[in-house]
Amino acid sequence: MGEKLDEPYLGNIRQEWHWVKQGIEEILETQKNLTFIAEDVYVACINNTAQLWVAPEGFVITTGCSDEYSDIRTLLIWLAWARVKGQDCVIKYTPYFSQLAKEAGYALLEVRTPIPAPPRWLDSEWQLDHFVYTRNI
């Protein structure tokens, strides 16, 4: 995987930090509900609890999680950033990350976003799982 020039490849967070940090900070600036800082992502990658994938358009950070009741394993696309927005990189790289997840023993591939999914996502075998609403008290 990641052997073609147009596919993501497993990156080294130390080597890529100078530009990946800027992308993470951009995400955090636009999504105020996220509670971590860029350095938390760095540490997760260093500790191998998350992975940095570098693509021609930008980067993706993945991590794994398991359902506490069913033990179903999910590969979560935790963060995704592109230099130019609106390129549908999620759809473009779905086959790549689906294969990666399958080979690593995951049953699901998940993306979380505050942006409503365009109808073309749902036409591409993605399904809306749930909405989460919060309220300050």
Secondary structure blueprint with pairings:
Layout lengths: L8 E2 L2 H18 L7 H9 L3 E6 L2 E9 L6 E10 L6 H15 L4 E4 L7 H4 L15
Parallel strand pairs: 4-5
Antiparallel strand pairs: 1-2, 2-3, 3-4
Strand tally: 5
Structural class: alpha+beta
User: Ends: how far apart?
Assistant: 46 Å
- From the alpha-carbon coordinates, what is the Rg to the nearest angstrom? 15 Å
How do the SSEs run, as a string of H and E? EHHEEEHEH
Measured as a percent range, the helix fraction is: 25-40%
Integer average pLDDT: 90
Q: In what order do the strands lie side by side in the largest sheet? A: 1-2-3-4-5
Measured by DSSP, the beta-strand proportion falls in: 15-25%
Principal-axes geometry comes out as globular
Poorly predicted sequence stretches spanning 5 or more consecutive residues: none
Sketch the major β-sheet: 5 strands, mixed
SS element count, helices: 4
